[in-house]
Design a protein that fits this description.
- The chain has 464 residues and is an alpha+beta fold.
- Among the domains are: 108 residues, Alpha-Beta Plaits (2-Layer Sandwich), CATH 3.30.70; 91 residues, Alpha-Beta Plaits, CATH 3.30.70.
- 36% of the residues lie in helices and 20% in strands.
- A hairpin with a 5-residue loop joins strand 8 and strand 9.
- The longest helix has 20 residues.
- The chain starts with 9 loop residues before the first helix and ends in a 14-residue tail after the last helix.
- Bound molecules: flavin-adenine dinucleotide.
Length: 464
């Protein structure tokens, strides 16, 4: 039976206002509504109170109160999750980190920065640009560092630079009993102790609340090259992915879009991209002649796989625009179909199984008579499939749920994961047992050790 959590009492709301400041605590309807839903299709659920901590001590005060009274406490950054990850389904407190958003120290010679976790990664990168540096994970939405840590977010450049987990060196974490831990170090490698930094990353706020992070940065590449290739069929585009990686061409991005997604982008963004299955690639190198050699090689590989066109060398503005519209694919689909909902499938397989995965997903979409849009971080084996449906049509809702289940189960059976980057949240709870088997029991033991009262973002990550 699912566990009950008491509602936060008016006296405790007053105590929070007293401890943290009246203007940083709200029980107003609009604030509760704003913190009741993320960007997913999952049902909203209001918290009892929203708190905007200003300091780590504020977080400690909230967690200690929650621990004493048994309230649920859910950390929140930008609320752009796609699996219900920050929805406070057991009520209680939401801690919104948007006002803890300072850059604390940039150590440019070490390629490191210390931040408070409410800073958005785009804003961080705007500042880092002046130092010739950047933080690579780029989920596209207006995500903040705390939420990226929560979900182990990744993005178009993960194929070259890794996910958030690969770009974090240290964390300040408030534990479920209100202790403040400093995890990790400034060294870029270490063999010391259990790796609690990486345990926290991707734990969706269920093991601890992160207040500060030390991030590992990269130098901005001196030269970029964007390549756009079109194919007669999506299968050919997918088959080209593994060879592009295998031949050591080191793309900094390798993205797939089906013709239907390109058409949605053209319609919404007034673009004139060829409406064919497409790979977007980006290369980073030290000079133009190195990029020229890379281009010649990749052109050969793409043509071997039947590419109809392989275009290169667009200008900087066009490149930025292209990535913007790619990042905005989901939003374009939503804007073109007002009133419809989108269930976004996120699954990840070894790249050798990518084409097969996409073929199986296409067959399933057709069999169910669903409307599906395919795109994804192909270089990571990560497929996104946007399933459009009318939320008032129960049969359509069931059909997209069946497509989601079939595609995700196939991904797991192919040696992959039920989620490449969006996290478990609520939507992937039915799949974690199939993916992790007996290891799930050990995950439950870790949860029980770090959060014995079960107050941290309850109802997520581990099925009840
Ligand atoms: C249009 C669109 C495109 C997207 N594309 C991508 C993509 O390419 N790649 C990708 O990875 N994601 C993508 N996402 C999903 C989403 O943007 C990412 O998962 C992002 O990391 C969420 O960040 P956030 O700041 O919105 O976090 P939130 O949604 O606020 O929170 C995310 C999780 O982290 C937890 N959390 C928040 N703050 C803390 C904290 N201080 N301590 C501990 N836990 C915390 C929350 O409880 C929640 O479980 C996309 C979303 C949209 C809407």
């Amino acid at each position: 039976m699912s566990r009950q959590y008491p509602p936060v009492t008016p006296e405790d709301v007053d105590a929070l206002k007293h401890a943290i400041g009246e203007s940083h605590v709200s029980t107003g309807s609009s604030n509760l509504d704003l913190h009741s839903k993320d960007e997913s299709y999952h049902e909203p659920h209001r918290p009892d109170v929203v708190v905007w901590p200003q300091t780590t001590e504020d977080v400690v005060a909230c967690v200690k109160l929650a621990a004493e009274k048994g309230y649920a406490v859910t950390p929140w950054c930008a609320g752009t999750s796609l699996e219900g990850n920050p929805i406070p389904i057991k009520g209680g407190l939401v801690l919104d980190f948007t006002e803890m958003n300072r850059i604390l120290e940039i150590r440019e010679k070490d390629l490191q920065v210390d931040v408070e976790v409410g800073i958005q990664y785009r804003e961080l990168n705007n500042q880092l640009r002046h130092y010739g540096l950047f933080f690579p994970p780029d989920p596209g939405a207006w995500a903040a560092i705390g939420g990226m840590i929560g979900n182990n977010a990744s993005g178009v450049r993960t194929v070259a630079y890794g996910a958030t987990r690969d770009c974090v060196l240290g964390l300040e974490v408030v534990t479920a009993d209100g202790d403040v831990l400093h995890l990790g170090s400034r060294a870029i490698k270490s063999s010391s102790g259990y790796d609690l930094v990486r345990l926290m990353i991707g734990s969706e706020g269920t093991l601890g609340i992160v207040t500060r992070a030390t991030l590992r940065l990269r130098g901005l590449p001196p030269e970029y090259l964007t390549v756009v290739a079109t194919f007669p069929a999506i299968h050919d585009a997918c088959e080209a992915v593994s060879d592009t990686i295998r031949y050591g061409l080191n793309p900094a991005a390798l993205e797939l879009m089906d013709a239907a997604v390109v058409a949605e982008i053209n319609r919404d963004q007034k673009m004139t991209l060829a409406e064919r299955p497409m790979l977007f690639l980006e290369f980073h190198n030290v000079n133009e002649s190195a990029l020229e050699s890379q281009f010649e090689m990749v052109q050969g590989v793409l043509q071997e796989h039947g590419a109809l066109t392989v275009e290169r060398g667009i200008g900087a503005d066009e490149r930025v625009r292209l990535w913007e519209v790619r990042h905005g694919a989901l939003e374009s689909i939503k804007r073109n179909h007002p009133g419809a909902s989108v269930l976004l499938v996120d699954t990840c397989v070894p790249i050798s199984r990518y084409a097969e995965m996409v073929d199986r997903a296409k067959e399933t979409v057709e069999r169910e008579g669903a409307v599906g849009f395919f795109w994804g971080h192909a270089g990571d084996g990560n497929l996104h499939l946007g399933l459009l449906y009318d939320p008032a049509d129960a049969a359509a809702k069931d059909a997209v749920a069946r497509v989601n289940r079939t595609v995700v189960e196939h991904g797991i059976a192919a040696g992959g994961s039920c989620t490449g980057e969006h996290g478990v949240g609520i939507g992937k709870l039915p799949f974690v047992e199939a993916e992790h088997g007996k290891a799930l029991d050990y995950m439950r033991r870790i949860k029980a050790a770090l959060d014995p009262k079960g107050i941290l973002n309850p109802g997520k990550m581990l099925p009840e």
